[in-house]
Amino acid sequence: MTGRSAMLAAQGARDANHAAIVERYEAYFCKVLDLHSVGGGCPDTLVRITTRAGHVLQLVEIKTEDGSLSASQERFRDEWAGQVCVTVRTVQDVDAHVERVRRAAR
Questions:
Q1: pLDDT recorded at residue 85
Q2: CATH number for position 10
């Protein structure tokens, strides 16, 4: 892969379910910062989940149901060890993620 296609691959592409996942977070009044074009294995989004105790920021990687992490995404997780990076594949995963964070913040 060379030229423009290599550059686009390095920057990352949106998964087919990206819009639906972001929409679901927003339905929970979460703030979503789209990071998918950052590249270098950076997760697709930074999500701010509002809880009774305040805001919780979490990096969220969006994958399709059969998608897997790339080598650069695995490296990013290793290098940023200790930071929360969640992978979601479905709107049900979003439901569970938001509920888990809000329950833990009580």
A1: 92
A2: 3.40.1350.10
Number of domains making up the chain: 1
Which residue, 7, 13, 5, is CA-closest to 70? 13
Residue type, 14: R
pTM here is 0.84
DSSP H or E run through 75: helix 71-79
Containing domain of residue 98, as a range?
3-104
Structure token digits, residue 33: 């910062």
Using an 8 Å Cβ cutoff, are 83 and 91 in contact? no
